[in-house]
Amino acid sequence: MAHKQKRIGILTSGGDCAGLNAALRAVTHRAIRGYGWRVFGIRDGSLGLMNRPLDYVEFDLGIASGEMLRMGGTILGTINKGDPFAYPMPDGTTRDRSQEFVDGFRELGLDALIVIGGDGSMRILNKLCKQGGVPMVGIPKTIDNDVAHTDYAIGYVTALTVASEAMDRLAPTAASHHRVMLLEVMGRDVGHIAMAAGIAGGADVILIPEIPYSLEGVAGRLAETQAEGRNHALVVVAEGCKTETGHNVTHVQADGEARYGGIGQYLAARLAKMVQAETRVTVLGHVQRGGQPGPRDRMIASAFGVHAVDLIAQGKLDRMVAWQHGSVVDVPLNEVAGVTRGVDPYGTIAHTARGLGIYIGEMRI
What we know:
Strand order of the largest sheet: 3-2-1-6-7-14-15
Largest sheet: 7 strands, mixed
Helix content: 25-40%
Number of helices: 11
Number of strands: 15
Radius of gyration: 22 Å
CATH topology of the largest domain: Rossmann fold
CATH architecture of the largest domain: 3-Layer(aba) Sandwich
Number of domains: 2
């Protein structure tokens, strides 16, 4: 008796990052070569199944080439706003469009959906799929690396490489001009990029959302660098880091939405007066998201894509693939959705920073 040919959908949701196309390619290769299935890419995240007509493209091995592996961004497009449960309408109201998503899944005749997203996307789409009885498998991606139960998410290592290279370029100009150089990196709620890039780049100060700090503590460490005979210093700060009094630093976008950003300028203005030094700020911003994925992100994304398809074949649904201790595993989605994995203030990375004499805040150790 012939088995029904499965039809699986795949979408990217939330902010883009390097390595998404490598995951799309891996899913396509494994599904077609390994199981003879059909693969449908849903455009612009959940919106592709909510739009009428449906917005999708069928993938084949011709599309999923080696060139696709190397491409930054996502060829499917993505969205990081527009909750289907409270979708913003042109008149300013919101509408529950969740059933449109479920109906779109049924209309396309899909058997399962693979979602590539961060913690926020996993939370919303897990709820959406559970409500509509849509079988789902998750693949973690985020440059912040804050998805629970996985050591790595797609995009993090490439973003870290960009931040580390920025440190390498800032250090010589800091020394040449006897300046304190501040690098503001992405990290809305967590400081994984800031902490790792700071250690890799020889920072004197690293400030992250998870660990409180004082301006006096920062100034004290900068004064120590001068006493050690150095005429320059490097500071790394995550964009979501609060002021020393616990206030967020944000700026308002053209659409009226408040976004994190500006903590670097805030610190530079105050530290310049406290340590009598010239300060300069570099904000990396979306440079960390874009560009060609590094080899590790390509490899992790490929491994995630293959394992996600295998989970569907095994009937192991409502799971997320994860990287733990050098291997790909899978964990229940309900243990991941909406859970943030921050930097452990007492963990190995924080201990390493303190051991190197880097000021990272004032947690008791």
